[in-house]
Request: fold
Amino acid sequence: MAANGGWWLYVLECRGGVLYTGIAKDVDARFAAHAKGTGAIFTRLNPPLRILGRASLATRGDALRAEYAFKQAPRAAKLRWCAAGLATFLARTSSG
Reply:
């Protein structure tokens, strides 16, 4: 699912309940790469189970900033934002 040339922030639930956050142009293709063991080292050691959330961003820079901000949040907040939709997280970070 590509965002018309844009970027995506995505969150995966991995084996052991750990979360993985990344950015990609095509989340489904990136998830497939992680699942095959050709993605990040982290997901080779902690295979992904499912995509918990994704949100579209206009540029790679926007996606990288959102990824960094999301990674700073406590786990409970990350899970709430995934349940509510990552757009709620992006709205929070862009309004401050």
